[in-house]
Amino acid sequence: MRIIIISSKSGFLPQQIEAMKNTAKVIFVVEKPDFKSSYFNDQEEKVIALGPEQLDWKFPQEVWEKIPNLKAVCVPTTGFDWVDGRAMKKAGIVLTNVPKYSTESVAEYAISLMFNVSKKLPLVLKNNWKIDYSKHQGWEIKGKIMGVIGLGSIGARIAELGQQMGMKVIYWSREARDSRFKYHSLNEVLRKADYIFPALARNKETKGLLDKSKLNQMKKDSFIVSITGDDIFDLQYAIQLVHKGRLAGIALESEKETVQNYEGNIWITPPIAWFTKEAFAEDIKIWTKHSLLVQKEKQLIK
User: What is the pTM of this model?
Assistant: First the structure.
């Protein structure tokens, strides 16, 4: 058995590397991999621990189906939409992800996004850090209505933090229910909330869920705070609403856009919500564990 880790070695503890070496041959590939290399193409059984950055978040079927005796692919991310899990399952290849390792980090970051856009930090930044007292007055958070869309582990933690800060929390979720917060239909959440937090998994079912008709239901002094990028809501239309004074602001992470790209109260950061010391250590710990467990053919997608 060979474990091919497409990632930097620096994040792993010595004991984690040693544990893998005790069960298999371990190879680290720190740059973009050459899938024509011999260690990908010999007949030895293989587990690939696949870091997304080295592959630009792409691992297409036409690549992995040519790797002989590929037994499992272990990704260190919670989402795995960048890997065709159904095709792998059909081919008999185990796919694992790492759920819930960054729940606290992402939820805290979502709250920080809310504060930044609520206090109109984007407007101050775009005004060369000069305060305009006629335009830069912000809002307090306490007593406002937080609307969480999707009550998975991250959505639930965002709701907890909001409630602890004195916000009134309402939510919509397809399946999850939590008596600590008040359930509403999706349309009701959009109409009532001061701060909308899309916290759904990104997939074909949720892509574009908050379209123009949904966004038009939001109050003109409300905000969108997204830790799921812009897949779930129509970003360009939401920006138009901000410019027209029909939304108070937007805050999100994006790999493509920057805060300087847009005028108005629009706060955009790189996708770093997950990247804390604690979350990174937990991610590597679970990723290592899965790379060992898949040798026993366990399916670990959550």
Answer: 0.86
